[in-house]
Amino acid sequence: MDCKATKTDLDNIQVFRRLFLQESNCQVRYNAVHERGWSDSYLLTLDGIAVGYGSTNSQNIKGTRETVFEFYLVPHARNQARQLFRELLIASGATLVESQSNIQLLCAMLHEFTDNICAPVVLFEDNTVTEHVLPGVTFRKLEENEKIYTDDPGKYVLEVNEEVVANGGFLLHYNMPFADLFMDVKEDYRSKGYGSYLLQEVKKQCYLAGRIPAARCNVANPVSRATLLKAGLKVIGHMLIGQVKMQAL
Is residue 8 located within the same domain as residue 80? Predict the structure, then answer.
């Protein structure tokens, strides 16, 4: 069969991106890259018929788009996945592949076409409802124009004796219905349960906003990992990145 990858406009792959997001059913880390204009799009065809897409971005955002970060084919075209992925690599000139380990098709291509694979980021999804209690601690919204210990706070804070000791919230630029949790605890109050309590309460607000909480942290950050687990999330995968093997092309 005639397999081709042709650079195209974002609008021409959106029908396949909708299928990709529905099938993935998880938070897609680089979802916003497309709408921000930080990606290149490639239409994948078999004998002239569009059957999927691939996308590339840059590890430095504004640099050369050398990294394949999305790859989707309709089910009946997946027996040609290897050849179509090879054509995508050739057309784009990509030298890296980055995939969430919980997105199966691209992850399979990454393992076949790359080496020197590393996993720098841990991915989390919500798992259980926790019932942590911290006496004397108030969870509330950050008031408009309120100044606290950080210049870039989240929407919610923890307060102890009229002092804000932690802040956090959730980001909405991910694919619906997912949102990304974040938090920060003032240095003197760390390792005392404030972070997991804050995330527990932020999760409630996230659901009330019609979003499903998710999160990620650096694999070298065991404190954040422990905090997320204590707040009721669980590990569902990693971000994997590998260097394209030139002999595979």
Answer: yes
CB contact at 8 A, 206 and 170: yes
Smallest CA-to-CA distance from 201 within 123, 149, 127, 132 is with 132
pLDDT digits (tens, 9 = 90+) for 196-243: 999 999 999 999 999 999 999 999 999 999 999 999 999 999 999 999
Please tell me the total count of domains within the chain: 2
> Tokens at residue 30, please?
């680089």
- Verify that 43 and 144 share a domain, yes or no: no
Dihedral-angle region of residue 123 (phi above 0 means left; psi in -120 to 50 means alpha; beta otherwise): beta
Crossing angle of helices 222-230/194-208, nearest 10°?
60
**DSSP 8-state code for residue 176:** T
What is the reported pTM? 0.93
Query: Is there a single domain that holds both residue 136 and residue 91?
Result: no
End-to-end Cα separation, the chain, in angstroms: 17
Q: Which residue's structure tokens are 């050739």?
A: 90
Amino acid, single-letter form, for residue 145? N
Residue 136, Ramachandran bin (φ over 0: left; ψ between -120 and 50: alpha; else beta): left
The token duo for 80 is: 């040609």
Give me the domain span that covers residue 52.
3-121+239-248
CA nearest to 132, candidates 102, 158, 162: 158
At 232, the amino acid letter reads G
C-alpha distances in Å from residue 86, one per residue of 33, 78, 83, 94 = 23, 13, 5, 10
Which strand (E) or helix (H) includes residue 100?
A: strand 96-100
| DSSP letter assigned to residue 142 | P
